[in-house]
Amino acid sequence: MESGSSKLFSLAQQLRVYKPPLNEAEESTGKLRSHSMSPEKKAAVLICLFEGEEGDLRVILTKRSSGLSTHSGEVSLPGGKAEEADKDDGVTATREADEEIGLHPSLVDVVAFLQPFLSQHLLRVTPVVGILWDRKAFNPTPNPSEVEAVFDAPLEMFLKDENRRSEEIEWMGKRHLLHFFDYNTGDQEYVIWGLTSRILIRAASVVYQRPPAFIEDIPNFEYSRM
């Protein structure tokens, strides 16, 4: 399966030894990380990386169907809620990616798990990093009830201050920065924001081993304890 370039091999080696730090967000949502936690409170998303034609690292994204009851029409990472049969977050993320866009789990090499994020619906969302060694082996087949479009974007974009804007919001009693990234591909225009942009900023920081060129969050921001 590992037929990719030396860049992907090096990235896989780097990420396989990655250990997410215990940060304030995890401490404040510690009970969400319990193994006894019910599946409906857990979710996982897949950060599927591959090497583009120009040699850059790219990530697969989706535009959610306009008919969905939540986050309709928004850009997101493939993923969703855990099911009882899922043995871990990697299974959840790859299963959901298969159901949503036809990305078969056998094509994805799971190499790392990032620290969980807390969604606005109080789900513990774990980002799962996977490598797609052979991009040509993946023929996107979006499930129209869930996904309107499948596209990809350069991962490094989420460390740059270009095509980015932000606004300050209050969530769970604390001030927070909400980042928006404008991305054009072909004749399509997408806005990547919210939890998806937060996860991709963190993923890009881990992959490229450097912080973003902008303030990621308001200094001294703390998540409110649940």
Automatic annotation (TrEMBL):
Protein name, as recorded: Nudix hydrolase domain-containing protein
Gene Ontology molecular-function annotations: coenzyme A diphosphatase activity; guanosine-3',5'-bis(diphosphate) 3'-diphosphatase activity; metal ion binding
Gene Ontology CC annotation, any one: cytoplasm
InterPro entries in the cross-refs: CoAse, NUDIX_hydrolase-like_dom_sf, NUDIX_hydrolase_dom
UniProt region (Disordered), positions on chain: 68-95
Residue ranges of every copy of the Nudix hydrolase domain listed in the record: 40-196
Keyword vocabulary terms for this entry: Hydrolase, Magnesium, Manganese, Metal-binding
Compositionally biased region (Basic and acidic residues): 81-90
CDD domains according to UniProt: NUDIX_CoAse_Nudt7
GO biological process terms, semicolon-separated: acyl-CoA metabolic process; coenzyme A biosynthetic process
One Pfam family from the record: NUDIX
CC cofactor: Mn(2+); Mg(2+)
SUPFAM superfamilies linked: Nudix
The keyword Hydrolase appears for this protein: yes
